[in-house]
Task: structure prediction
Amino acid sequence: MAERPEYVLFDRDTEAIVFGYQQNAIQRMLDFDYVCRREKASVAAIVNPTRAGLHQCFWGNKPILLPMYRTLKEAVEKHPQTDVMVNFASFRSAYPTTMEALDYPNLRTIAIIAEGVPERRSKEIISKASKLGKNIIGPATVGGLRAGAFKIGNTAGMLDNIIDAKLHRPGSVAYVSKSGGLSNEMNMMLAVNTDGVYEGVALGGDRYPGSLFIDHILRYQANPEIKMIVLLGEIGGRDEYPVVEALKSGKITKPLVAWCIGTSAKMFASGVQFGHAGARADAEEETADAKNIALKEAGAIVPDSFNDFDEKIKTTYDKLVADGTITPAEDVDPPPIPQDFNKALAAGTIRRPPQFISTISDDRGEELRYCGVKISSIIEDDYGLGGVIGLLWFKKKLPPWASKFIESVVLITADHGPAVSGAHNSIVAARAGKDLISSLVSGLLTIGPRFGGAVQGSAEHFTEYLYRGDQPEFMVKEMKKKNVNIQGIGHRIKSVTNPDVRVEILVKYAKENFPVTETLDYALSVEAITTTKRNNLILNVDGCIGVLSCDMLRGLGYTREETLEFVKLGGLNAFFVLGRSIGFMGHIMDQKRLSSRLYRHPWDDIAYMMPDEPEEVE
Amino acid sequence: MAQKPIREFDAKNMLAKNWQEFVGDAFAFAGKLALVDPDTNLDDLPNQIDWLRTDRLVVKPDMLMGKRGKHGLILLDGSWDDAKKWLNEKRGSDVTIGEVTGELTHFLIEPFVKAEKEYYVAISSKRDGDEVLFSTEGGVDIEEKMKEGKVVEIFVPITEEIDNIDIESKLPADLSPELKPKFGAFIKGLFKYYQELGYAFLEINPFVVHGANLIPLDLKCRIDDTAVFEAAKYWGDISFPAPFGRKLSDEEKYIKMLDGKSGASLKLTILNPKGKIWTMVAGGGASVIYTDTIADLGYAGELANYGEYSGNPSTDETYEYAKTIIDMMTREKNSDGSPKFLIIGGGIANFTDVDKTFTGINKAMIDYKDKLLETPVWIYVRRGGPNYQTGLKNIRETGESIGVPIKVYGPETVLTKIVTMAFEDTTGGAPSDETKGTPEEVR
Result:
């Protein structure tokens, strides 16, 4: 570790440990480092009690990884070159973590950010730090910075502000303020009225801040690069008086511009507690007026009100330039800083073709919406399952006849007993101890041209011939010639004389409610021909659903081309998959409830026809 | 969050409850105490607290005020009937103490104790430790006694255990040898109590000793309320009342409630509900500067409120905060028909998202569009910090869209300049030649 004079808390080589996983603050520290053209990041390690590992952040536009440890001990041991800890621990744990940090010899300065640390705990921290000759900044502060070198956490905000306030290179003026919030105001005020900040520290608004005005001002006095000092004090406490004494005794010789805020407190008889815990005068000397007078009498440059503070700073600075004490620091162009993507996006200054487009739902607003309809209206206005499928699959608010049809399809296709391929697979998987999703998928994977695919297949077959304008007789003939079974025609048991009640219900419903039944009519004409050949070559339930789905789309205003497009993207399988998943899951739960054991197919049901030896291939 | 005084009833009650654990057997303190608040039924009170009928009583207001004796606000050595009569006279009446006038609402009743010998003890927090003061000549003229050197001072460094300090030998010579060890034990116990319970100041002046009993007659204290997570188990159900003469309005109570629930800070004190100048300032330091500047310019009497929001409050929180302020300021018009000013000020934030917080303010402005126009209210904004560009642009557009005169400035304008502008403004917010020499508004 480089030896630093006592009066230097931070320089361009300072490395810190950040306690607490404060991702924004860490990135802001690194961004500051980058625009200061530091060689190395100022954050050496992060302590995150809940997770160890690596944290990814940016150095300019290059991603870098910072090590993260669960304990401070580990971080300190692995990174002995660090001498600052930025402590983001909560008000509860700020005390124990700071006390621990003080025990590590290499940690020389600790900044405590938390607000609400009990005063007694602060006093214990102060006492221990002073015995060990260490520096505390805070609690209840944003921290501080040395321009062009190092900054604590969120100090000075974001990059645009850092550049505007010229904090990426050192000026000649150092300040110390009580308020963390006002420190950034000082950065800007000094940038506008002088050649900028050399160093700035915000003590924090508590009654017992870890370091005092005098501690920092004496450092500033000792640092030859600092030519002028600014103090921004506050009503309450007596921490400004050591500065008054030091002015009187000649320990401070550099020009000191000072102002204590809270002069208005006298206007309010019953004692207003201002925002800061320490901002309350319990005695005359603690008032802002008394302090301002004392500072002025001791030789500080004190304005009449805050409104003139900037002017006093400017005239004091100009004098120092005129008498040659200050050679104004030159302005330095910062390296180009990549804009933060999210920020730029929010500000609307960049655009990018999105990787994803979604046209069916949006979860970003106050309420989730399906195709523009709020989830609350979906419940309140009784959209039902059919209505929701309409919104998410067809992007339409369906008329009641259509949503009721969809619901009927789901009900009818929900199950077909345990013996069919899909249910069988689900059951076998469930009995092998697989979870619900694996077992379900095992069943679903069987759905295709031979099992459950007839819904899709019939729609494909019938629309092909219908839309081409071929007669049903031609379709039957050509399919026969191609030796292809017409999907959706034929049943193992049901026949003309023993009709499938499900089909009867659906056909009746469609005839009464659908505006268009062209595909159904075409399929029924085909059935009239096929049943003359064999009486079980009827339009089965899958076929019926397939053709009616096409008619539903036509009834909803789809053109034949659009209907065909939906069929081709496999949309009709969706009805079967949705419906049948209910049945598969039922079978899976059934097996689990029964604690069925692993299924093993019986030997006697397998014909073992293995040759004695394999055929040899030359 | 700060050092806060509590009622004498709560303080003595707390002391009595924790007496055994900290002070132990050196003395006993029974803690016979009764609190009368606005809800107390005086006819029923003696049924709950039996010694009220049997003991002679002392009654005094319990409202964080001093100089009660001087203002005739103590009833000494009365019967319950006397006390009831006295209370009925005083309850709800206004008294003026110093410059502050307030309504008497809370009283403390204790058994009357004849004071032959009055003692004094006080402990107060210093940066490097705590200071214990003790005297065998307690009472109202304690400050005189201090000057006469009749008060002993014992400093306890922060790192020192009180048990390692020889208190006894430091006690005044006129304390009898039998009492010295007992007083030593009492002071040590009281010190530990003070320490463990997060006190910043504790003064008992005077207390008397009757045999085995120690009775604090008058007790004042301030508790560091940030110690709540360590000490609440000892505190019990205490409250932090507003200073005497400051009855919290419903709006102040509402903001206090929001503040209590939030990780951010939301503060509001109404100074003059008829004031022309209302402030909504971000930041503990900046809010003080705005108040100072308004006072410096001679408008302290017109300032309606002190308040601040900070620590990155959510949009909802700033909405509620802004709504509360705008609602109050638009209830009445100025009698001369002149506009009211709303100063939406703040420093250059370090990490508070300006756009996010302003979104809440914008929403409140839109909600109160008609009332803002009717009153009328002119708005002046100055703010910097993360996303201030978007935030300022949006608040300007909101103001303009609802037709409220609004001027908006960014970080390059000194934070208090908008106060001067507001006072000098006669144009209703329209940028004109009169604002020449002032910085460019953010467009």
In short: Chain B has three domains: 3-31+115-235, 34-111, 250-442.
